[in-house]
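To the team - heme C complex, inputs and output below.
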Amino acid sequence: MNVRTFTLSSAFLAVLAAPTFAADKVDVNAGKTLHDQQCKACHVQRWGGDGSAVYTRPDRKIKDAKALGQRVAMCSTQTSAKFFPEDEANVSAYLAQQFYKFK
Ligand code: HEC
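Output:
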């Protein structure tokens, strides 16, 4: 197992093991910056506007914070973003606060 594989899979496991983000440790602004740099363009291409319709459409896929954390981890692994676990937590927190507003 090379270093890169190890980093990615441990990041993924960390998210699975800690599906909720400790509110006092996350940085929503940092999450927004990362999201806007790494994730937004593709969503804009497909959904137009600022791309956030993917998060607010009536048939959106993500229903809770746990699923959001897993989805962000998966997306960051599959795209070129390659976030660290704290980046994923920040991006998840930003999306939850700004768009998902889970009850
Ligand atoms: C190459 C294009 C592309 C990139 C880059 C991308 N996404 Fe997506 N994203 C999509 C598509 C397409 C969907 C809708 C998939 C579906 O409907 O199942 C989606 C859906 C999502 C959803 C679920 C929305 C819902 O239904 O509730 C989340 C969360 C998400 N993306 C987060 C991210 C994050 C975080 C990043 C950056 C690490 C990212 N995406 C990068 C294409 C992309």
